[in-house]
What we know:
The protein is mostly helical and 482 residues long.
Amino acid sequence: MSPLLILGIIVAYFCLLLAVSFITSKKGESTTAFFLANRESPWYVVAFGMIGTTLSGITFVSIPGMVEKSGFTYLQMVLGYALGYLVIGLVLLPLYYRLQLVSIYTYLEQRLGFWSYKTGSAFFLLSRTMSAALRLYLVAGVLQLAVFGPLGVPFAGTVGITIAFIWVYTFRGGMKTIIWTDTLQTLAMLLCLGICIWVVSEELNLSFTGMARAIVQSKYAQVWVWDAKAPNFLLKQLVAGAFITIAMTGLDQDMMQKNLSCRNLPEAQKNMFWFTVILLVVNLLFLILGALLYFYATQKGILLPSKGDDVFPELALRHFPAVAGLAFILGITAITYASADSALTSLTTAFCVDFLHFQHRPEAQRIRYKNWVHLGFSGLLMVVILLFRLYNDESIIATLFTLVGYTYGPLLGMYSFGLLTKRTVQDRFVPVIGVLSPVLTYVISANSQEWFWGYQFGFEVLLLNGLLMFLGLWLVSARKTA
């Protein structure tokens, strides 16, 4: 495929997003529209658009790539996600709507105190900056391979162009624009996923029933793992999936900001329910695609990269028919933009509300500050992506979940303490506990094999981190007095 052809398609797609931005936003619109879309978003549009935000480009390449080693066992984690979304819909959303929050971390100030509030928001800023950068790092790598590298553009230039695209169509409309661009991008991603499955099944001469039969009869068909010592043991995956979802969605300003833009709580809960159903189906489709990729490589005698994250890009860009290769580029671009654009807006929101105290400023000053913060986080994302380029050598999805465990753990501990106890904390100690919690988690995880009879921590470092934070808060708290 010609790099110029691919670049032309990406530019045309970007122009479409820019058109949506101009249609959905108005010049000089208030910061309320930027942050929460005036709380007028249709729930079904939010539900559909959240699919792209949740999955990201990491899912697009990592989930198919892990089928060779893990089969369909990732579905155990996905079912755990569903349990987590149930908790979010029934516990956290009613809380956020009752308090009429813009930043969800305002709850921590009301429940625990000023320094708890700042600590929670700071951990979100750290977490979302790294996870958004990691997702953009992935799509920048693919675009570098397929488009900008052959044109002589260095990786830093590719990253700059990618982030500039996102900044241009989000800086004016914010959440009001993102609700609709994410819907468009989710649709583009699903169409591209469908095209890739169809093209590969045609290449393999498999009908729908033949495809299902081939997968069921293959070594990839394993879903359940009953060995309690295995890293992907069923119970372990369900629990990890549930708590990862509660932390990454329910305690995440990025994801909750979309839900809070719905008209009311019942609509937000409907959004969460249907989003969960669609997410289960889409993850299954990605696993099906993964099995087909390995069938294809075996039949064609293709030597695949050892790193699972490279399998789909390698086949799509170097071996598939042109239509599938173009679908891959468009799909991964759409799904990554869907997750990165809302991350940029939520980072802007959290910093403006939690650290610049927008509620005490006139609207003209809010708009000016919002624009500068939006630009500043765009630059920060670029720096972090370049650092990932220098130091990351793991599977991207494993890296993401590792980061989640260390940065969302304190948030999980603070919210759990606030919701499950009635104790008051000595708030000035919370930032110290917030730092000690991930440090102790790392020490315990690094020595777990020696200390705990060979046990190795995986994604459950999130639970350990949250538990240590909870215990730390308990130690500096006292029973509420009447």
